[in-house]
Amino acid sequence: SIMFVLAYVHQKGGTGKSKTVLGTAPELAALGRRVLVIDADPQATVTNAMLGRGHDVSGLAEVLGSGHVAEEERAKIGSVVVPVAEWGVDLLASNFHRLGVLETEHTSDSSRVVDLNYALESIADAYDYVLIDTPGNLGPLVMGSIMAASHILVVIDSGTEALEGFATLQGALKRAARLSEFEVLGVVSTRYKSNTDLSRTVLASVREATTYPLYATIREATKIGAMNEQRLPIGKIAAGRPEHLDFVDLAQQIDSLLASSDIESNAL
Question: Between the chain's N and C termini, which has fewer beta carbons within 10 Å?
Fold first, then answer.
């Protein structure tokens, strides 16, 4: 089967990327898909939500070779992923310090942005979906994630003027598309309030500016934040509530667009 690699991106922090990854991953697993979550953000929000704080597991930094480790000495993804039973997925963890160091090293050696793409080749048969949470910038970890992706999901916060950075992001994606084959799957609008003009306006203007197949909305809800504190997926905190159903719907949309299609643009 094809392995789809989805990078969740926006060059601003706080748009809800991590929560969208945390919300989508278990729902894709609930559809019977084998899911790996990669936390490529030194802030480690996804890792902390799944494993709690204070853990010190090996993860992405070891795979990419923090400290200029020779390529043959780097960890293989399969040897450092952590199965997280409560979430029904595997995790390639982030470590604040080691990944932060790595980001600095990558900045001075841009040839390494393709490293994640190569690392993923070793697990191409093990998963149906790889979901990558990225930092809120356009630095080397984000560009490396984009280069490794078969598909991009742009996550915007419809509670703010989300379009300011949208043009910048589209420019970066256009440049990356010259070097790598990926498709922008669509836009996920977080903190959506259908009763506000702002949310509706933001989404309408994104639709005007783009032709992506997916436009999903995740409603504003305090329970979404509880995933981090309770270390549980939304389906176990707020089963059947609107905010859970939004993620169920998003996972089903992604799955029907990808799994049932013959999209093989950059699927490994």
Answer: N
pLDDT tens profile 22-32: 999 999 999 99
Q: What CA–CA distance (Å, rounded) separates 92 from 98?
A: 14
Tokens found for residue 133: 């949470």
Average of pLDDT values for 45-63?
90
Kindly state the tokens that stand for 77.
């993804």
Tokens linked to 2: 């094809």
**pLDDT per residue as tens digits for the range 96-119:** 888 888 888 777 776 677 788 888
Counting other chains too, the contacts that 77-82 makes at CB distance below 8 Å and 24 or more residues apart are: 77/36, 77/119, 77/120, 77/122, 77/123, 78/122, 78/123, 78/126, 81/36, 82/51, 82/57
Return the beta strands (E) in 74-121 as ranges.
82-84, 89-92
Label the pairing between strands 129-133 and 82-84: unpaired
Spatial separation of the C-alpha atoms in residues 167 and 98, rounded to whole Å: 31
